[in-house]
Amino acid sequence: MATRFSSLIIAAAIAIGLLAGRPVVAQTVETPATNAILIDMATGAVLFDKEADVPMPPASMSKLMTLLMVFERLKNRSIALDDTMRVSDTAWRMGGSRMFVEHASRVTVEDLLRGVIIQSGNDASVVFAEGLSGSEQAFADEMNQRAAEIGLTRSTFRNATGWPDPEHRTSARDLATIAARIIREHPEYYEIFGEKEFTYNNIKQGNRNPLLYKNIGADGLKTGHTEESGYGLVASAERKGRRLILVVNGLESVNQRSQESERLLDMGFRDFNNYPLFVANETIEDAQVWLGAEATVPLVLEEKVLLTMSRKARRNMTVTVAYESPISAPITQGARLAELRIEAPNMDPVIRDLVAGEAVDRLGFVGRLGAAISHIVWGTQSP
């Protein structure tokens, strides 16, 4: 028996699919941001990153974790949009960006959501923390516990607002993970991120996300700024059914944040594309079987495959199948038999198992004897 390798020519588009995992197709990109990452939402492919795993002060961008905690409470129905929460003296006195809630008043969850998302209200964020957990410290502890559960590896939360604290840190990659979870799991609330203004207590404030006003497909998520962090943005945009998530931090001005975020998103949409390669349960190749009731067995890919890669890399993509040939019978349906490997420049290889699409019984004694004689005489198994 010998290892068989076969090359496949893949059509540019067969059917839309989903590739599990997070392949890296990152290219070198110059950006003045100190931390950045750009991710394709459908595939998880990282189009570029710069210090994306380095813990950084996130400023108000960490309010996305606060919002995720609220969205999850809404989803499990432990709170409702028309519930009200009391404004404490601590929340009312919060500085920085504010929703301007009144002292000792009660505010609906729905208004608080818009106060945090659109107005970046520190006061509203503290109202949520105290209303859900009793205190901001207790809420921060719950944030950290939930962060570990959803795979955030570089995040430590000390408050609900992003208020400067030497231990309050997260990473660009972790922020992108939170954003993706919000978009994917809470679409009914994600729509709020695209609203451009909100009026509360007769005070109208505009959404601080500069990309919402550029007609580039942007519909979220959250800005951030402190003296330590610089100017940052967690953004998402969708064009022609394809969604990207961008995180930048450490920029020098409002204008630089706006221009650099637009430039990086444009690059992601222009230079990369998603290429559907295989549908689920597609037969990739028919492999020869030794001493089987059938001469061949279909090698089947159980997963759909959608790859993100640069348009230039797509032209140099190779797809190979490797397995020991012939495959000895009996063969159980679903048994792993081969390996599919997809390679392209500047992309980590994508490797997927191929399984038996059908069961193949072993030949009886007479059949095996005939096959052995045929192999001796002709060098092949009898059909």
List the helices and strands and how they pair.
Elements: E1 2-8, E2 35-40, E3 46-50, H1 63-75, E4 84-86, H2 89-92, E5 106-108, H3 109-117, H4 122-133, H5 136-149, H6 172-185, H7 187-190, E6 197-200, E7 203-206, E8 218-226, E9 230-239, E10 242-251, H8 254-271, E11 272-278, E12 282-290, E13 296-301, E14 305-310, H9 311-314, E15 318-325, E16 327-328, E17 336-343, E18 350-356, H10 365-378
Parallel strand pairs: 12-16
Antiparallel strand pairs: 1-15, 2-3, 2-10, 4-5, 6-7, 8-9, 9-10, 11-14, 12-13, 13-18, 15-17, 17-18
Helix pairs in contact: 1-4, 1-6, 3-4, 4-5
Task: Give a structural overview.
This protein is of the alpha+beta class and 383 residues long. The protein has 10 helices and 18 strands. The chain has helices at residues 63-75, 89-92, 109-117, 122-133, 136-149, 172-185, 187-190, 254-271, 311-314, 365-378; strands at residues 2-8, 35-40, 46-50, 84-86, 106-108, 197-200, 203-206, 218-226, 230-239, 242-251, 272-278, 282-290, 296-301, 305-310, 318-325, 327-328, 336-343, 350-356. Strands 1-15-17-18-13-12-16 form a 7-stranded mixed sheet, with no helix packed on it. Strands 3-2-10-9-8 form a 5-stranded antiparallel sheet, sandwiched between helices. The longest helix is centred in the last third of the chain and has 18 residues, at 254-271. The protein is elongated and about 90 Å long.
